[in-house]
Amino acid sequence: PPVIRREDYAPFAWAVPTTRLDFRLAPDATRVTATLDVERNPAADPSPELRLNGDSLTAESVTVDGAPATWRMDGPDLIVTLPGERHSVEIVTIIDPSANTQLMGLYASNGMLCTQCESEGFRRITFFPDRPDVLSTYAVRMEGDKAAFPILLCNGNRVAEGDNGDGTHWAEWHDPWPKPSYLFALVAGDLVANSKPFTTVSGRKVECNVWVRAEDLARTDHALESLHRSMKWDEEVFGREYDLDLYNIVAVSDFNMGAMENKGLNVFNTKYVLADPDTATDADFDAVEGVIAHEYFHNWSGNRITCRDWFQLSLKEGFTVLRDQMFSQDMRGEAVKRIEDVRILRAAQFPEDAGPLAHPIRPDSYREISNFYTATVYNKGAEVIRMMRSMVGETRFRAGTDLYFDRHDGEAATCEDFVRAIEDGAGVDLGQFRLWYSQAGTPRIAVSQMVEGDTLKLTLKQTVPATPGQPDKQPMPIPLKVAVHSRSGALGAEQLIVLDSAEQTFDLPLAGPDPVVSINRGFTAPVVIERSLSREDLVFLAAHDDDPFARSEALQELGVAHLVGAARGTLSAEEQADGEAAIIAAFRASLADAALDDAMRGELLVLPSETYLFEAMATGTQLADPGAIHTAREGLKAAIATALAGELQAAHARTSAIPLDDPAGRGARKVKTLVLGLIAAADPATAASLAAAQYDAADNMTGRQGALMVLCSLDVPEREARLAAFYERYKDNALVIDKWFTLQALSFHPDVIAHVRKLAEHPDFTIRNPNRVRSLHMAFAGNPKGFHKADGEGYRMVADVILALDPINPQTAARFVPALGRWRRIEPGRAALMKAELERILASGNLSRDTFEQVSRSLE
Ligand code: B3K
Ligand code: ZN
């Protein structure tokens, strides 16, 4: 497959002011007639040929201005010869949605028909200039069987409908806003809506609908309320008002991603729509709210202003992730949400940035764009814009985004356009800052300090590690919020410093004797801080820092230092004991601190994840040993639980007594399951009976799932009984059965691989449904113990899944590759086994573009 380069961008030779589409819907043969009004683009090199992208399409007929056309195929694309300045091109294609297992283009899901076009799915529906810089106004007519497809939806507004009287009916839709083809959507199915109008700030009434199958209607209120909250928030915080009279959301059960922001017609994975306390956890509720918000915010950051080309993906995704994170921070509390987002960044993006698939947030080349919907483009992209916001402050940032929305409304823009709008609107020079768009790799900052009189001299040295294709890096501007506290208890004031050269010393005022530096407060920059603060200083910060984020960071730092030392086997017996004692003391303090609420307490009781420890252990020339990390982490959990047995059981009892609808209930449920997990590490029998009791008493999914999670890792009789009860209770609910698969795939049970193999044979398992594949196999690939089993059986199983899935759904198959791609930073025994699996995949031949690109890059 060819490599596509950002520097090769050229505008398209033709404009397509209007597009008419006519669909005769049938599950196995849908007839599509597309009429494109085209005219020469004066801004592009003239060409007598119009290249229309196709993917697995054949043209039934092609006419130009009503007469047979001169056309030919060039690989998958259709090339039409056009003599004049302006023409009308009509093309007929016939597609088979029921055979579409890739879930790109028009496909069948659970009896309905729906579309997914981003990035290049529209070309599987009809021949079209399927690139985001070709904006067109769409008029769509669809016709189909009335019983099978009583509801017919498309982008924009419904302008006409009718019944043919022969069992078929039709509808016509018009979207007044010009859009790229990737935002096209159509849905036909037997759906019901939960509706509630929203009145915009200027007084316009918007009909909001959440469309689902009838049996799911009772679980749609949270999604609908989340939509209303998002609409209001975007008006207040970014000054963005909705621009159609209708906002439709449809839930489908077969979906490659979370959701899709199609103009006026979002298509969602059911997982991010359906929620009630009996079937969804508190985390699921948060995820629904976050994804609903994300897709809604795209209406401005993505749809009104779209991307010039796919290299600019972070323009819409990074910005929209930042917007949804800010929204959720406002809805649910700033610190806890920030801690969660940083945890995700470290678990997903840092490893990506340190591995063979590392790429800048604005990539320079790709073979398959689907492989670039990454944590780097999304989450690091959000961090980069968050840094701009931290540097200029809220008010000036808003002036910058106002200018951006105003200046580029209706355009297909670039990341450069965004940066320039922030520069002009906020009045800031982001010249050097642009390096964040072009350089990959997580910067590392070495910290040293010296006291001189009443000043602390803080010396920071930055290095940006080499990444594939980028051996040498330049220093980047790194904004860091810092405060210099005193061990006497006096807290220093927070200030923002910007490290913009390789090495720099900052003079900071002392708050008192024995300074302790709190750095990167609130995680102002997506970097790794390298320092060796004493255990006492970290314990001090964990207990006293006035920034709750910094408190949790101090505890993480304490845990990482100890666990990496333990995994490397470099701790003396005394260091081992002292490290454990410090962490135990910090946990004891968190459990006892009456000033903390449980939501924050819960964050403080989370030990660094194995993935994060893997990153911390594999630094410089050192390699990670997943086996040693697992043993060290489980050992620490056991030590904590042995020392704090009474406190943990008391915390479990206290939190168990807080009722479901108490405002403190969410935090309590989090703490309850965390302490149960700790107890299990030291005292499986007690944990098993507490977990069984928690399961039996639970009146909500959070408590039930938490209990079952703990039971799943234990070899106890309570395990089987509760798993069976859970299955029996929820066997008709696909999303909950996904949880049942996931809990077993993620467990630390000694037989986890055998369990996963058996589950893959379960009648409810199907490799054709992405949620199910993710619930079993993707979960397993993220199980640090099972996946990294020393004999390579876990690697083999994941490689087998990639090979089996690739011909069916390449996008989802390729998403398994990064787990194996981490081999270079892992101890030699496992590395060889992982590499051998990648080579086996590559040797099998006939791979999709998606999987080929990821596997070959992982072996380079
Ligand atoms: N924009 C979509 C992603 C679609 C990816 C298709 N390969 C979802 C989102 O980020 O909102
Ligand atoms: Zn998005």
TrEMBL record:
Keyword Hydrolase found: yes
UniProt keyword list: Aminopeptidase, Hydrolase, Metal-binding, Metalloprotease, Protease, Zinc
Cofactor: Zn(2+)
Signal peptide: none
Boundaries of every Peptidase M1 alanyl aminopeptidase Ig-like fold domain copy: 441-531
Record carries keyword Acyltransferase: no
EC number(s) stated in the UniProt entry for this protein: 3.4.11.2
Span of domain Peptidase M1 alanyl aminopeptidase C-terminal: 536-860
Pfam families: DUF3458, DUF3458_C, Peptidase_M1, Peptidase_M1_N
Catalysis performed (reactions): Release of an N-terminal amino acid, Xaa-|-Yaa- from a peptide, amide or arylamide. Xaa is preferably Ala, but may be most amino acids including Pro (slow action). When a terminal hydrophobic residue is followed by a prolyl residue, the two may be released as an intact Xaa-Pro dipeptide
Family: Belongs to the peptidase M1 family.
Listed name of the protein: Aminopeptidase N
